[in-house]
């Protein structure tokens, strides 16, 4: 029997294990998100943070453990997908923003945002168009709706990707290093949008290297090291009083890098 | 006989042949295009025995002359006349035109499947992930992301394949189909007028030029998102 899942969690992952071949990348991670939580996941490269995020919406299938969203639990055994339909249902509750944006390059900005509501939720086109136009206006791209992604800057593309995720009205939005592929001067515009989302109470799980964002915006910080959670807690506590040496080293190193 | 005279007497027959060539090629390429997407998917994601079977079929088609394949079906079917009659298929195989279409479908389908397989493999994986991440079903991911990209990528190579098929369709004349080449040979055998071959060549060229133009128009539409100019 898997452990009982607390009911106030919108998203919870229990004891997630994931291996690639002989290498065990995740060695049992348990994490839950309540409504309005903004959880930043930090870690050195290779710590498994992106893999863990991708396990949450089954882009990587965990070897064992379980994920529960919206009261529906998926238990993984032997790294197999049991019920493809169940996974598709789970994904509809989770938005995802990728490091490389991954916009559909053959569709316009507006079509990118309309795609999910129309193709997955079967929303009438006119309604989806209104929704998409509103979301694009909110991320500051009302004047770019007819453009194709190739004509936009990285920051603009990432804002479209955020609007695309919002269009599905997800319970939780997963961000996989959303600013890591951006030129430094474009990072701010994306972080600003994310900050606004946090302020309006969106539930977010963010894998990031932006220490300032983790510290100032998130409600909880998780530090992964070698496939395990090394530290976890409110940002002010973690950043000011790191308990483990690895995390202390990690903060001091990033401080030096950004000094 | 002057060229004008020669053309005016030959042209009706040549045009009739050209029409057959177009139908032969069009039917062959189009029917092959119906089967190739499914076969490309099996070739990539199907169960191992099905994959092996497809690879054997593709190697056979690509590794043997089209003329040999045509003879195999046209003369080979004659060997099984009794059996084919029993199955009610003899009336189909008796007609050389049908045999030619069948062979062209089998031949072009192998090439198109390989071309499309390459196209599917070149689809940006991140865009597929993005589609899966919003909860699209597999069928929807194929229809909305994978095939639109795969056809765009494969488009020039597919056009090439159709042109090659069109020219190779002249082989049908050898099994007595009166396509453009068949008509040309017929005219030459009666008049020994060498210029008819030039006239035929000009018609083949004309067909190709028009086809290339139309194909490129479609390609421009398929790649409109890749130009860095203002969108509509």
Automatic annotation (TrEMBL), chain A:
Cite the Pfam families for this sequence: ABC_tran (PF00005)
Q: What is its main location?
A: membrane
What one GO molecular function would you report for this record? Answer: ABC-type amino acid transporter activity
| A GO CC annotation given for this chain | plasma membrane
Q: Does the keyword Cell membrane apply?
A: yes
- Print the keywords alphabetically: ATP-binding, Cell membrane, Membrane, Nucleotide-binding, Transport
The record's CDD domains line, in alphabetical order, gives: ABC_HisP_GlnQ (cd03262)
| Keyword Cell membrane carried by entry | yes
Entry's InterPro entries?
AAA+_ATPase, ABC_ATPase_HisP-typ, ABC_transporter-like_ATP-bd, ABC_transporter-like_CS, MetN_ABC_transporter-like, P-loop_NTPase
Its recorded name reads: Amino acid ABC transporter ATP-binding protein (PAAT family)
- Source organism per entry reads Rhodobacter viridis
TrEMBL record, chain B:
Q: Where, per UniProt, does this protein localize?
A: Cell inner membrane; Cell membrane
UniProt-listed PROSITE patterns? ABC_TM1 (PS50928)
User: Where does it primarily localize?
Assistant: membrane
Q: Does the keyword Transmembrane apply?
A: yes
Membrane-spanning intervals of the chain: 20-42, 162-182, 194-215
InterPro entries assigned: AA_ABC_transptr_permease_3TM, ArtM/GltK/GlnP/TcyL/YhdX-like, MetI-like, MetI-like_sf
A GO CC term assigned to this protein in UniProt: ATP-binding cassette (ABC) transporter complex
Q: Where is the ABC transmembrane type-1 domain?
A: 18-215
Query: GO:BP terms for this protein?
Result: amino acid transport
Question: Tell me, what is one Gene Ontology molecular-function annotation carried by this entry?
Answer: transmembrane transporter activity
Q: Which Pfam families match?
A: BPD_transp_1
Q: How does it sit in the membrane?
A: Multi-pass membrane protein
Keyword terms, alphabetized: Cell inner membrane, Cell membrane, Membrane, Transmembrane, Transmembrane helix, Transport
Give the source's domain of life in one word.
Bacteria
Q: Which family does it belong to?
A: Belongs to the binding-protein-dependent transport system permease family. HisMQ subfamily.
PANTHER family with a match to the protein in the record: ARGININE ABC TRANSPORTER PERMEASE PROTEIN ARTM, MEMBRANE COMPONENT OF AMINO ACID ABC TRANSPORTER
User: What is the protein's name according to its record?
Assistant: Amino acid ABC transporter membrane protein 2 (PAAT family)
- Species per Swiss-Prot/TrEMBL record: Rhodobacter viridis
Per the UniProt record, the lineage of the source organism begins with:
Bacteria, Pseudomonadati, Pseudomonadota, Alphaproteobacteria, Rhodobacterales
